[in-house]
Amino acid sequence: LLYKPVDRVTRSTLVLHDLLKHTPVSHPDHSLLQDALRISQNFLSSINEEITPRRQSMTVKKGEVSLPAF
Question: What is the pTM of this model?
Fold first, then answer.
């Protein structure tokens, strides 16, 4: 269930990217779209930075046995 909101932000980021690609620089919303895209990309980057160390610590290489740390 926690992936749903992040997935929604990911899809919105892709939509913003496509919309920005088709919006002329002279359009009044162009700078607002750039800001929204930057904010959503920064959000996704921060989520990824928080998840990556946890994912790596939970990964067990083939043939290794992982024992819980106490």
Answer: 0.67
